[in-house]
């Protein structure tokens, strides 16, 4: 059994095949809504133009003419299942065609934007390049979403035609000409699918190139920024060194008889003290950041203490001499 019979009444049945509900009756259908498709089936004698199938002969010329005895399995099961698959495939093909046309228009637009982006990538500023890249990425995302819906429908068309072929083969080739007519349309949809897939791959490659150029430009900017930062840090270190040297000298001269010492010793001690203070400042910054006492911090602190003791001891020593 291909179908599920939902209801029977005098002169017909209501059944369900997959997600399609059908009404098979020899009377005028008592329905108010337009069905997906109407198929007229007549039992008539062969006029010589009929084709054979498993249970008799048939001809299709807008309506299905059958030369066969009435069989419930044929008219309430096999035939509704076959017609449902054919109608489903034809309906989906129409939907596919409209979607393909819509996607082709969007494809033209996005390819134009990608081409423009690729051509101007070498001259645009990083900010403008990034802005255009985001715009194209957004268009690609929308196009990809529509493409996936289109691809799913193409798969549904393929499945419907395949199932129709299976039922047709079981019935000895019934309506095989209708199925054969749909196959070129399926191939056309698959061609569109392949074209759209290639377009998406091309867009992805173009965006990869743009992103690579953006990374290069950003890297160049970061390198320049690092150079400027290094220069500023060097200048700040020199200023810090001079400031520490000057103020340390003034304080030292105020409290101790520095002038009694040889100039080479006082200069060496002051230079060493200032240098260690500047380096120790950096080490203290690292400690504040990492909350960890390093060997560098401990050694510099000890060295500073030693130099401080010498700066106190030597002036007193030379003043007594």
Structure write-up:
The protein has 321 residues and is α+β, with helices and mostly antiparallel strands. It has helices at 72-120, 126-170, 176-255, 263-290, 295-320; strands at residues 4-9, 12-17, 20-25, 41-43, 51-53, 56-60, 64-67. The strands form two sheets. It has a four-stranded mixed sheet with strand order 4-7-6-5, with no helix packed on it. The mean pLDDT is 83.
Order of strands across the main sheet: 4-7-6-5
Residue-averaged pLDDT: 83
The helix tally amounts to 5
What spatial form do the alpha-carbon principal axes imply? rod-shaped
SS elements, strand count: 7
Residues in helix, %: over 70%
What is the element string, with H for helices and E for strands?
EEEEEEEHHHHH
Task: Briefly note the structural class of the backbone.
Answer: alpha+beta
Which radius of gyration do the C-alpha atoms yield? 44 Å
Percent of residues in beta strands: 5-15%
**Straight-line N-to-C gap:** 122 Å
The major β-sheet equals: 4 strands, mixed
Low-pLDDT runs: none
């Amino acid at each position: 059994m291909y179908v599920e019979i939902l209801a029977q009444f005098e002169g017909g049945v209501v059944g369900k095949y997959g997600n399609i509900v059908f009404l098979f009756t020899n009377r005028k259908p008592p329905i108010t809504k337009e069905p997906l498709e109407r198929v007229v089936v007549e039992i008539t004698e062969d006029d010589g133009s009929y084709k054979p199938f498993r249970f008799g002969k048939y001809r299709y010329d807008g309506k299905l003419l059958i030369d066969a005895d009435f069989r419930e399995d044929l008219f309430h099961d096999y035939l509704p299942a076959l017609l449902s698959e054919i109608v489903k495939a034809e309906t989906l093909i129409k939907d596919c065609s409209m979607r393909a046309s819509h996607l082709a228009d969007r494809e033209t637009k996005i390819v134009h934007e990608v081409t423009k982006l690729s051509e101007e990538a070498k001259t645009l500023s990083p900010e403008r390049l990034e802005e255009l890249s985001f715009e194209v990425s957004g268009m690609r995302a929308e196009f990809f979403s529509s493409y996936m819906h289109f691809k799913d429908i193409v798969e549904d068309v393929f499945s419907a035609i395949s199932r129709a072929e299976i039922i047709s083969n079981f019935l000895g080739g019934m309506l095989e000409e209708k199925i054969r007519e749909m196959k070129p349309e399926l191939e056309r949809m698959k061609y569109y699918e392949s074209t759209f897939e290639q377009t998406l791959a091309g867009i992805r490659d173009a965006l990869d190139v743009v992103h690579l150029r953006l990374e290069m430009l950003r890297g160049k900017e970061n390198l320049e920024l690092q150079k400027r930062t290094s220069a500023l840090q060097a200048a700040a270190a020199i200023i810090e060194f001079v400031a520490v040297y000057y103020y340390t000298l003034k304080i030292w001269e105020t409290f101790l008889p520095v002038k009694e010492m040889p100039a080479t010793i006082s200069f060496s001690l002051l230079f060493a003290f200032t240098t260690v203070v500047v380096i120790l400042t950096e080490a203290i910054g690292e400690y504040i950041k990492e909350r960890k006492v390093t060997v560098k911090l401990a050694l510099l602190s000890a060295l500073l203490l030693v130099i401080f003791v010498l700066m106190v001891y030597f002036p007193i020593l030379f003043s007594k001499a």
